[in-house]
Amino acid sequence: MSRLPRLVAVLLAISLLPACSSLIGGPKETPKLYAPVLHPQANAAWPQVVWSLATSRSASMPILEGPGILVSPTPGELQVYRGALWARSPSELVEDSVLHTLEASGKIAAVARQNSGMDADYRLLLEVREFRADYTGNAVPAARLDINAKLLYANDLSIVGSRNFQLTQPASDTEVASVVSAFGQALDRLAGQIAGWALTTGQAHEQAAHRPATRR
């Protein structure tokens, strides 16, 4: 399916979903765009590397690529917040946060998006599997993220490492702005975990590749 029909299908699907508390009810309104404020969190213990890395996004479920801010009021139920949209898709938000964290760390020779044209040594493939607010029986929701990261060696596209990163960050209250803030905090923490893992895993691969063969 081409990108335009897919986008139309996603927007239609979201428009048919019921709305929820600041979610449920109320007159139709012009939606507000939300973008979590990111604060990259680098770790001085991460290895210093001389290789380069390109980030890219793997295809996610269409509902996860739409602009609606997803919320689960009860287990198995999926809705969207009324009058609220993401300014960028969840996969773009995840890639942005990881890229900014790696840049801010000063631990890597070069890092850029895959479509930048940079001839990178490694490729970090990010797949969003869950990106929603979740009540799970609580009075206040929490941002719930599940991201799969794969590190590929660019020379042969072999998988150097693969890992799932899951994180939950409670919101301070039920307001949409507070939920968005919780997503921002979750992205900061998750991006730090992914960036540190990518640097450590890539460096271990580099050292193994250049280690002299042991004589017997």
From TrEMBL:
<keyword id="KW-0449">Lipoprotein</keyword>
<feature type="signal peptide">
    <location>
        <begin position="1"/>
        <end position="24"/>
    </location>
</feature>
<dbReference type="Pfam" id="PF03886">
    <property type="entry name" value="ABC_trans_aux"/>
</dbReference>
<protein>
    <submittedName>
        <fullName>ABC-type transport auxiliary lipoprotein family protein</fullName>
    </submittedName>
</protein>
<dbReference type="InterPro" id="IPR005586">
    <property type="entry name" value="ABC_trans_aux"/>
</dbReference>
<feature type="domain" description="ABC-type transport auxiliary lipoprotein component">
    <location>
        <begin position="61"/>
        <end position="195"/>
    </location>
</feature>
<keyword id="KW-0732">Signal</keyword>
